[in-house]
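Budget justification aside, the reviewers requested a transparent look at the raw inputs and outputs of the sequence design task funded under Objective 1. We therefore reproduce one unedited record. The lines immediately below are the structure tokens for a 71-residue chain.
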């Protein structure tokens, strides 16, 4: 069974690292977050394209979209 660390545990462990390692850790975490967000966005775009190809959505103008949101 995999043990997961709490946020506080991770911060405490990071505090024990030398400053250079902390900076490297921050950079690695930032890059991983960016990559994860990118993967999520790609999946959403792929899903939207599939819905459009199936006729489940239609093109809409910004004005139509705002009007629909404000209804």
């Amino acid at each position: 069974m995999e043990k997961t660390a709490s946020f506080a545990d991770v911060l405490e462990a990071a505090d024990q690292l030398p400053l250079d390692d902390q900076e490297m850790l921050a950079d690695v975490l930032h890059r991983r977050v960016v990559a994860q967000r990118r993967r999520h966005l790609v999946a959403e775009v792929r899903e939207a394209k599939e819905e459009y190809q199936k006729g489940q959505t239609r093109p809409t103008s910004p004005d139509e979209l705002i009007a629909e949101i404000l209804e």
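The chain has a mean pLDDT of 94. The chain has one domain: 7-70. Computational costs for records of this kind are itemized in the attached budget.
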